[in-house]
Amino acid sequence: MHSDHELTGIDEILRAVRQRLEAGSARVERNALKAAGEAVAGSMRQKVAVSNMSYARHTRDNITVSGIRRKDGLKYVLIGPNKKVSWRAHFIEFGTSNQSAQPFIEPAFREKKDEALQILAEELRKGLRNR
């Protein structure tokens, strides 16, 4: 589990990236968020139940990390099934009256959140070192 100290550390690294890299910081931030998101997405792909039905699009093959989004001055990525399969992924995660729940989104997040924070911090540090 991450501590508030770890988050403070990431905030400090991010401030340094923005001060030292100025315009180049957007690329470093984008790469760091995508790399951290991919750790969680990879775990989702491993955990999701795969049907033996011959769907044109299996959920596992459509778990993605979005482009950078912004809200209230914060940058973030969305991680999970894309629009092609998200309607079906809901049934897998939560179950239906005819199908037991087979959660993969929440377990993947819990498993990888600390690793994702470490990746985020390391990618930001790497961006500082490479300048």
Structure in words:
The chain is mostly helical and 131 residues long. Helices cover 57% and strands 9% of the residues. Strands 1-4 form a two-stranded antiparallel ribbon.
Any chance you could write out the topology, listing elements then pairs?
Elements: H1 4-21, H2 25-47, E1 63-65, E2 69-71, E3 74-76, E4 79-81, H3 86-94, H4 105-129
Antiparallel strand pairs: 1-4, 2-3
Helix pairs in contact: 1-2, 1-4, 2-4
Give the strand tally. Answer: 4
Distance between the termini: 31 Å
Q: Per the principal axes of the C-alpha atoms, what is the gross shape?
A: elongated
**Share of residues in helices:** 55-70%
What portion of residues belong to β-strands?
A: 5-15%
| C-alpha-based Rg, rounded | 17 Å
The helix tally amounts to 4
Structural class: mainly alpha
Summary keywords:
single chain; 131 residues; mainly alpha; two-stranded antiparallel ribbon; two-stranded antiparallel sheet; 4 strands; 57% helix; disordered N terminus
In short:
This protein has 131 residues and is mainly α. The protein contains four helices and four strands; from the N terminus they run ααββββαα.
